[in-house]
Amino acid sequence: MIKDILRLLEIQDIDLKIIQLKELQVSLPQTLESLFKDIEAKKKDLADAQKNLQDTRVHQKNIEVDVDANKQTTIKYKNQLCQIKSNEQYRALVKEIETLEKKNTKLEDTILDYMMKAEEKQSSVKQAEENLKRSEQTLSNEEQKIKDRIVAVDNEIKELLAKRNILKENVSPKVMNVYDRTIQHKQPAVVPIHGNICQGCYMKLTPNDVNEVHKGHTLICCDNCVRILYYIPDHG
Ligand SMILES: [Zn+2]
Q1: What is the pLDDT of residue 232?
Q2: Could you give the number of structural domains in the chain?
Q3: DSSP letters along 126-153, please?
Q4: pLDDT digits over 197-211, tens only?
Q5: 203 C-alpha vs ligand 1 centroid, how far in Å?
Q6: What pLDDT digit, counting tens, does each position of 35-80 carry?
Q7: Residue 197: beta bridge partners?
Q8: Residues with Cβ within 8 Å of residue 170, at least 6 apart in sequence
Q9: Distance 160 CA to ligand 1 centre (A)
């Protein structure tokens, strides 16, 4: 039995490694995926920032067109002033000109506001460009490494399984069955006892079980956690 146990411990080492590697088989592609998603998000941020800047510039341009139109009208009205005969019409037109000029002063302030906004938005665009560049750099640094690691993990699992198959040949099928069933639910599945305590669940074992584990002639499992128990004086 103790020989079976020693081989089981080797198999268990392999199985625990395989379990970790299988977790990597899941998480590595997820990591890669998240790098691609990050770039998509950064591209969207950049497009949003560019659209924002563009909108601001369009608003600014529209107001500039209004200001120009008002200026043209003002010039036209000023030219008309000298041809007006009636005082009343003259005053009305002067008032009209004043109104247009006041309006333009306000509009020019608004243009200044938009120019300042455009400057802020321009720096947001620059920031978004830098963020995208950084994400692309991260992907180009990591992509191949992760892909290589995925291949390496697959190969490592294959090698470990081959090793496991060889070791398995030298364990009695009955013991192997019990082990295979247990490792699915309990990792580790093979644990030592210290004194009369199972080192899997830390519960007390019956004196009879402790005795049998010490003898090492039959397969003894913990009554509480069903793990396979062993005792090796060096380890015990
Ligand atoms: Zn136990």
Answers
A1: 81
A2: 2
A3: HHHHHHHHHHHHHHHHHHHHHHHHHHHH
A4: 999 999 999 999 999
A5: 6
A6: 999 999 999 999 999 999 999 999 999 999 999 999 999 999 999 9
A7: 194, 204
A8: 7
A9: 27
Distance 188 CA to ligand 1 centre (A): 11
pTM: 0.76
State the distance from the centre of ligand 1 to the C-alpha of 224, rounded, in angstroms: 5
Which residues does 225 contact at the CB level (< 8 Å), separation at least 6? Answer: 186, 198, 200, 201, 203
Kindly state the percentage of the chain with pLDDT values over 90. 95
What is the whole-number distance in angstroms between the Cα of residue 209 and the centre of ligand 1? 12
Instruction: Using the mean position of ligand 1's atoms as its centre, give its distance from the Cα of residue 187 in Å.
Output: 12
- Give the Å distance between the CA of 225 and the centre of ligand 1: 4
- 44 with 102, same domain: the answer is yes
H or E element, residue 193: strand 190-194
Pairwise CA distance, residues 236 & 229, whole Å:
11
Q: How far apart are CA 235 and CA 222, in angstroms?
A: 18
Q: Are 128 and 42 in contact (CB under 8 A)?
A: yes
In angstroms, rounded to a whole number, what is the distance separating the alpha carbons of residues 135 and 42? 8
Residue 6 lies in a domain: no
Q: Which of 169, 189, 217 is the last residue of a domain?
A: 169
Give the number of other Cβ atoms within 10 Å of residue 174's Cβ.
Answer: 10
For residue 119, give the CATH number of its domain. 1.10.287.1490
Residue span of the structural domain in which 44 resides: 17-169
State the distance from the centre of ligand 1 to the C-alpha of 216, rounded, in angstroms: 17
Residues 155, 192 within the same domain: no
CA of 67 to the centre of ligand 1 (A): 86
